[in-house]
Amino acid sequence: MSIKLITLIVIVLGVLALAQLVRVYELSSKLRNRREEDITHRDNKANATLMLLFMILSYVGYFYLIAKFGWTGRGEAASLEGVETDWLLNVNFIIINVAFFLTNTLLFYFSYKYVRKPGVKAYYYPHNNKLEMLWTVVPAIVLAVIIILGLKLWNNLTGDSAKDAIRIELFSKQFDWTARYAGENNKLGYFDYKLTTQQNELALKTSATLDSAIRLMEYGSADGTVMGIALLEKKLNDPANIFVPEDREKMEADLDRKTRLLRLLYQMRSTHDAKHDALAYDDIIQKDTLHLMVDQEYEFNFRSKDVIHSAYFPHFRQQINTVPGLTTRLKFTPTITTADMKDRMKNPDFNYVLMCNKICGGAHYKMKMIIVVDTPEDYKKWLAGKSTFGDDYLKKPEAPVEMAVPEAPVADTVQQVAVK
Ligand SMILES: [Cu+2]
C-alpha cells in the first residue's frame, strides 16, 4: 500500500519536474533570442541517433523473447493435421519476419542516414513506376500463395473424413461441453431442438423422446415446472378463476406457443421412422472428459444450443465455431498420448484441453473440457463400462404425468389440426 502510494507520488512529481524543464528550456530559448520552431542541427542529429537506437533495442528485445519462449511458443503439435497447420504457420511467420525486418530497417536506418543537414536541400523524387509495380505485385503474389495454401489446408480439415473415422458430436452451451460418441454403429442419432427436455438435453430424436415431448406439452412435467396445455386450458376456462389481464395475456401466449409446438411435434412424430431410433440409442453421452484413442481419426460434429461458441483444441491446432442451428465439422488424428506428452513436457500435471474461444458470456472462462488421449487398450477399457443413451433413457423414461391431466382432452383437437 505505502509502496504504491510512494510510486504514485514519484510519478506525479516526475511529470511536474518534466513540465518545469520544458518551461525552463522555452525561457532559455527566448533569452538566447531563438524562435521556438527553430531546430538546431544538434537536435536533429540527436533524434536521428535515437531512431537508430530504438531500432537496435527493439531487435534485441525481439531476439531475447524468441530465445526465451521459442520460435512461436506453441510447443509440439499433437495431431497429424496439427503438423500441417504448424508448417503453414511457420511459412507465415517467415514471410512476416522478412517483411518486418526489411521495412523497419529501412525506416529507421534511413531516418538516421538522411537526417537534415545544414545547407543541403532535399532531393525531389515524386514517382517511380517500377517501384510502384514492385511493391504492388510482390505482396499480391505472396498473399495469393498464403491464401491458396490456407484454403487447401482448411478444405482438408473440414472435408470428408475417412470411412473408419470415429464420429463424435460436441454439444456446446453456456457454459460447458457435452460429447456424444456415435456408438457401435458409428452413426450419430438424429436430433431436433424442439425435443429438448430435462432428460434429453441433446434433443435426440427417437420414438420415445418424441412421445415424451408430446406428453410434456399436453400434460406438463411431473415436478410442475412445465405447465401442460390441458391444465392451462382448464385454468383459463374455469369461470371460478379470476385473472389480472396481464396474467391472462401471459397464460394465453404460453398456451398459444405450446399449442403450436405440439402441432409441430405431432407432425414430426407422424413422419418419424422408428428405424432411426437405433442410431440414437447406442450413442454414448459424456460430460467433463473427452477420451480419444491415439492414431485414430476422429470426425467432430459441433452444435450449439444458445450462442456462438468456438471449439479450440490448442495442442491439436484446431479451432472451429459452433453455431446455433448449423452443424460444423472438423477432423483430426491425435498422435501423442496424454502419458507421452506428460513425459515430453516433463510436467506430470499436463492435460490436453478443449476450450471455448469465443467470449460467450459471464462464465466463458470456465467453459472447457479435459481431453485424454489413450492407448487403444486403455481406450477400449474406458469405453467398455459406459452406458448408452438408450440404456439411460429407456430405463427411466420421462414420466407421463397422466394423473395431473384434467378432463379437457386437448390432444385430439390438436392431432386433427396436425393431420389436416
Ligand atoms: Cu462459449
Polypeptide structure, described:
- The chain is an alpha+beta fold.
- Among the domains are: 189-281 and 395-419, no CATH class; 284-387, Sandwich (Immunoglobulin-like), CATH 2.60.40.
- Helices cover 50% and strands 14% of the residues.
- It has helices at residues 2-31, 41-69, 80-113, 129-158, 207-219, 229-237, 245-271, 277-281, 338-345, 376-384, 389-395, 410-419, and strands at 166-173, 176-181, 284-287, 289-293, 298-304, 309-313, 318-322, 328-332, 352-356, 368-374.
- It has a 5-stranded mixed sheet with strand order 3-2-1-5-8. Strands 4-10-9-6-7 form a 5-stranded mixed sheet.
- Helix 2 runs antiparallel to helix 3, helix 3 (80-113) runs antiparallel to helix 4 and helix 5 runs antiparallel to helix 7 (245-271).
- The N and C termini lie far apart (76 Å).
- Bound molecules: copper (II) ion (CU).
- Copper (II) ion (CU) is lined by residues 309, 356, 358, 360, 364, 367.
The profile of the biggest β sheet is:
5 strands, mixed
Structural class: alpha+beta
The backbone outline, from C-alpha atoms, is elongated
- SSE succession: HHHHEEHHHHEEEEEEHEEHHH
Order the strands across the largest sheet as they lie in space: 3-2-1-5-8
Q: How many individual β-strands?
A: 10
The percent range for helix content is 40-55%
Proportion of beta-strand residues: 5-15%
How many whole angstroms does the radius of gyration measure? 34 Å
User: Which ions, cofactors or small ligands are bound in this entry?
Assistant: copper (II) ion
Annotation field: number of helices = 12
Mean pLDDT: 86
Poorly predicted runs of 5 or more residues: 401-420
N/C terminus separation: 76 Å
